[in-house]
Amino acid sequence: MSVRVRRVYEPPEPDDGVRVLVDRLWPRGLAKDAARVDEWPKALTPSTELRRWYHADEGSYEEFAERYEAELAADDAAELLGHVRDLAREGDVTLLTASKTPERSHATVLARLLEG
After folding, report:
1. Which H/E stretch holds residue 113?
2. Can you list the pairs that 21-29 forms with residues at least 24 positions away whose Cβ atoms lie under 8 Å?
3. Where are the chain's structural domains?
4. If exposure means fewest CB atoms within 10 Å of the residue's CB, which of 3, 102, 108, 110 is most exposed?
5. What is the DSSP-derived secondary structure letter of residue 11?
6. HSE toward the beta carbon, residue 107, CA cutoff 13 A
7. Among the listed residues 49, 53, 58, 59, the one whose alpha carbon sits nearest the alpha carbon of residue 24
8. What are phi and psi of 17, to 5 degrees?
9. Three-state secondary-structure class, residue 15
10. Any residues with CB less than 8 A from the CB of 18 and at least 6 apart, and which?
């Protein structure tokens, strides 16, 4: 099982496997055919409130990760998390985000949960 995080603006690679966009909004300036997104589970993304809180620098990344994990425990998100986990068991999965710092984004939290 391989789960990795990449910026959605990077060109697709042959070993990406299933490409899952994990942002609530479609990335600016990116054509849908160029992104080659296989799945876009919007309910798996952080809530608008949590995203705004984090981007306003009101808390640490660690606190953001804890709050996001709590959101992922909700029924809709937990079901989608299970679906993506199943995809990862079957082969490679690449989580795509428009974040400029993917290593400190929700995508990294998701990757950790999927691999754990």
Report:
1. helix 106-115
2. 21/96, 21/97, 22/95, 22/96, 22/97, 22/106, 22/107, 22/110, 23/96, 23/97, 23/98, 23/99, 24/48, 24/51, 27/98, 28/98
3. 3-115
4. 108
5. P
6. 24
7. 49
8. 70, -140
9. helix
10. 38, 39, 87, 91, 92, 93, 94
DSSP 38-99: SB--GGGSPPHHHHHHHHTT-S-HHHHHHHHHHHHTSHHHHHHHHHHHHHHHHS-EEEEE--
pLDDT tens per residue, range 44-94: 999 999 999 988 887 899 999 999 999 999 888 999 999 999 999 999 999
pTM of the model: 0.93
What count of residues does the chain have?
A: 116
Cα first-last separation, the chain: 11
Residues 8 and 70: their CA atoms lie apart, in Å, by 25
